[in-house]
Amino acid sequence: MKKYYNAIFLLVFISLIAKTGSSSDRFVLIFFGEEQGALAPCGCFEGQLGGISRRDTLLKDYETQGISAIAVSTGDLIKSPERQEEIKMEYLLAAMKEMGCILHNLGEKDFEIGLQALSFASQTNTIDFLCGNIEINSPFPLKYKKYLLKELPGFNIPLKIAFLSIISESLIKGHLLDFIRVYDPVQSLTPVINQIKGKADLIVLISHAPMEESVEIAETFPEIGLVITGHGIEDPIESLMYVNNTPLLSHGTRGRYVAVADYVVKSGSIRNTSVDIVPLDDKYAASEKMQVLLKQYQQTLKEEDLLSNLPKLPLEDGNFYIGSLACGTCHKKIHAHWSNTSHQKAYTTLSDSGQQYDPECISCHTVGFGYVSGFANYETNRNLAHVGCESCHGAGGKHIKNITDSYGKVNENGCLECHNFDHSPKFQYPKYWGKIKHPKEIPEGMSENTHGG
């Protein structure tokens, strides 16, 4: 019997030790935002960061370790008030719901989508919308909170985190001023902090503002334990700083990084152990749920036929696109050379990845998209698919009518429209030009002096 009781005592003792050092005493806050419509890396080059799929995997990794991960969105889901951005907002909110995101802080880009769309999103989503220093004058009711007091699940004692929110007045401009009034952040935060004192074990401020404004707020309120801020910081790795003992950091833009704050619960209190900016690279595998969501997004773009329905600009002086095959009628050697370059496969790279209905991608993989007579969709004018002659040289309609007129001079600036830093960061003009430079060819019966090309 004594051996039996000794065994029971040993088991209880071991379980207590295990519990004391277990991951249930730990939780992380994960912040992301300023996606500006970036649901996933575009795929233009290897090594791209970000995307909802990798973010979901990061959250699931913590869950697998038994660590509570609380996801928070800090604002600016979209970048402009077009229909495609509205669709993106719908899918980003759906992704956030799947990830268990507890709140979305409103940024100035979110307001630009329009109060009607934003009101609908706030009324139909379970995610709390937050903004602590604004007043909205609109016939469309926006459902949002000044702050959120969130109880942490899974702990033996009640623990609460207060999430506060402000937006900088400097970010609300133009037509937004017609229906949004922004109040001084310090004056808005003072009564809230006084109200939650004694109720919150940790106070977190989501400051949708430049870093210098957030520093001033942190200096004013030492009660704040963490500030997520730094509006418009492209590379957030070096953004971490401290005001007294309060960490301030940014997650950067376009969803390429997340800010992670790690905490342990000891003796009934919350203690920060680390803060970090984590790049969402290919270390994080694709999430199956998010991949399904991304396919649904592309399907929505196809069903709405945004390619055909987007407004189209007229070309100057009645010019029009003709397609590379028409160019090849006279420039046979050049056309044959082009047919063996990567430019001739540009549209195929989109169709192979299911992105051929995405207006943001299609413009750099076809000829003349966004212009009258330019590419509208593959069914209508497949002769304008891929990066063709007119992508570099300009519309050729007037040239084939009068081949003696000056036409088609190219330079590096034309390349940079698509080979920019976001899509082609390793672009070097001499190197890339060498890959696609075609032989010189004057049509039969013409000379350099009479041919305008």
Automatic annotation (TrEMBL):
GO cellular component annotations of the record: outer membrane-bounded periplasmic space
One GO molecular-function entry: 5'-nucleotidase activity
Give TM regions: none
Source superkingdom? Bacteria
Pfam families recorded: Cytochrome_C554
Q: Which Gene3D superfamilies match?
A: 3.60.21.10, Flavocytochrome C3, Chain A
Which InterPro entries did the record assign?
A: 5_nucleotidase/apyrase, Cyt_c-552/4, Metallo-depent_PP-like, Multihaem_cyt_sf
Which segments constitute the Cytochrome c-552/4 domain? 326-394
Gene Ontology biological-process annotations: nucleotide catabolic process
Name this protein carries in UniProt: Putative c554 cytochrome protein
Q: Which species is listed as the source?
A: Kuenenia stuttgartiensis
